[in-house]
Amino acid sequence: MTKASAIPVSIKRFGDKGCVEVIDVVTVEEPLEIRLGFGPEKQREQRSLSITMRTPGHDLELVLGFLFTEGIIQNMDDIFHLEHCTDKKGERSENIVRAEIKPEISLDWGRFQRHFYTNSSCGICGKASIESLEQMCFTPVHSEVKVDSAIISSLNAKMREAQGVFEHTGGLHAAAIFNKKGDLIFLREDIGRHNALDKVIGAAFFKKIIPLQDHIVMLSGRSCFELIQKSIAATIPFVVSVGAPSSLAIETASKFGITLIGFTKAQSFNVYTHSERIL
After folding, report:
1. At what angle do helices 225-233 and 126-135 cross, to 10 degrees?
2. For domain 149-277, which architecture applies?
3. Active-site residues: which are they?
C-alpha cells in the first residue's frame, strides 16, 4: 500500500482565546534508499548509492531523475528494471528502490563519493563545483526560445494553484515544468527541493520528452548550484524561482547558458543571467 504524503496530527493551538486542541495536517518525511544493480551479466553487483529524506510518492520518478541528473543514465533504455524492493516475506518495502542498469555502463564509485554532497557547509568551493560539471561532460544549454515577461510573471500563481499537499500542510517544495507558452506540463512536490526537481525531471524522462530545450522549470523556493546542475542535465534553458539565487547558482547559470530568474511575483521578477531570452 502506497504511503501517504501527509498525515493528521493532534496539536494544541494557542491564540487570543486561549488554548484549543485541533487536528493539523503535516508533511510526511521518510528516508528513501536508492540501490543500484550494475556490472557484467555474470558478475552483477548491488550497492546502496544514496539515501535521501523525501516525501513518499512518485518514488520511481525521483530515482529516474536522480540517476539522470547525476549522469549515471542517459535514456530509459539504460535501465531494464526499476521497482521498490521486497523483504524476505515478499512484502514491498516502501523506502527502498532498486534500479538495474544495463551491463555496458561502467561506474566510477570514487566520483559518486566525491560528488554526492548535500549542503552548503561541505567545504567544496565554487570553482571545484563547476569543474565537476565539466568532468561529467555537461555542456552549455543552447536554445533559441524567447518567452514573454507576462508568461514568466504568471507561473508562480499557476504552480500554487496546482499544488495539492502544500495547501493542506504548507510544508512542501514544488517544482513544475511549463512549456514556452506557460502551460503546465508536470508538477511534483516534496519536502526536499532537490527531490521535487528530481521527481519532475524524472517524470519528463519517463515520458521521453528530454531534452527540454523549449521548456521552463519553476521552483517554489530559492535556487542553488545543485538545482542549476539538474536543470543543465535536462537541457532546461529557463530556471525561475520564487526566492533568491545563490552566487554559485548565478555563476553556474551564466557559464552553462541558463536564463536564471528569481524573486518572481505577479508584477515583477529579477533576471540574473542571459536576459536576452526574455521579451
Report:
1. 10
2. 3-Layer(aba) Sandwich (3.40)
3. 122
Where helices occur in 15-58 by DSSP H, the ranges are none
* CB-based contact 19:13 (threshold 8 Å): yes
Of 171, 133, 154, residue with least CA distance to 248: 133
Residues of the chain with CATH 3.40.140.10: 149-277
CATH number among 3.10.20.30, 3.10.20.10, 3.60.15.10, 3.20.20.370, domain 30-135:
3.10.20.10
Q: Looking at residue 196, what is its pLDDT?
A: 93
Please say whether the beta carbons of 199 and 188 come within 8 A. Answer: yes
Q: Cβ(176)–Cβ(139) under 8 Å?
A: no
pLDDT-above-70 percentage for the chain: 83
3-state secondary structure of 166: helix
Is residue 103 reached through a cis peptide bond, with omega within 30 degrees of 0 on the bond before it? Answer: no
- Residue 244 has a CB neighbour count (10 Å cut-off) of 15
User: Residue 213 burial (CB < 10 Å; 0-12/13-18/19+)?
Assistant: middle
C-alpha dihedral sign at 155, 159, 160, 166: negative
Global pTM? 0.83
> Grid coordinates in use for 163?
499544488
Closest listed residue to residue 165, CA positions, set 48, 4, 274: 4
Ranges in the chain annotated CATH 3.10.20.10: 30-135
d(CA 54, CA 189): 10
Among the listed ranges 106-110, 117-121, 133-137, which one has the minimum average pLDDT value?
117-121
Report the helix count and the strand count for the chain, using DSSP H and E: 8, 12
Bridge partners of residue 25, in order along the sequence: 8
Q: How far apart, in whole angstroms, are the C-alpha atoms of residue 157 and residue 91?
A: 41
